[in-house]
Amino acid sequence: MRIAIGCDEAAYDLKQTLKAMLDGLGHQVEDYGTHDGRPVLYPDIAFALAEAVAAGRHARGVLLCGTGIGMAISANKVPGIRAAQCHDTYSAERARKSNDAQIITMGARVVGPELAKSILAAWLDAEFEAGRSAPKVARISEYEARRTA
Prior knowledge:
- This protein is an alpha/beta fold.
- Helix content is 47%, strand content 16%.
- It contains 6 helices and 5 strands.
- The relative contact order is 0.17.
């Protein structure tokens, strides 16, 4: 699977850990930065990554910052994107199964590397189930289409 990953300076080390995990699982990973520990404007990374996911260049995306909150807010500004902040495996699984979230966000100051790997694995293994959730996700998309037209 083609997966995009990006972070701010607070989550650089966690990004490196998750990037290695994804590489080890055989995914094609594109790194949207930051590429070192220097301060960056995380919305710029979130926007670029989310736009690439929305355009179909990547199947999914992973965004990391100190809390995961700012990355989620930023990514969700991009039309067509459903980004979910997840700090436990159940939420990560449901983000895919119920909400068809293409982007997961996590906070490096909230979860440690081993938990982050478990969360990411749960999210990667889950697929959208549609069913009862399909009309809800469709409603979100309909609303967004009206607002961006």
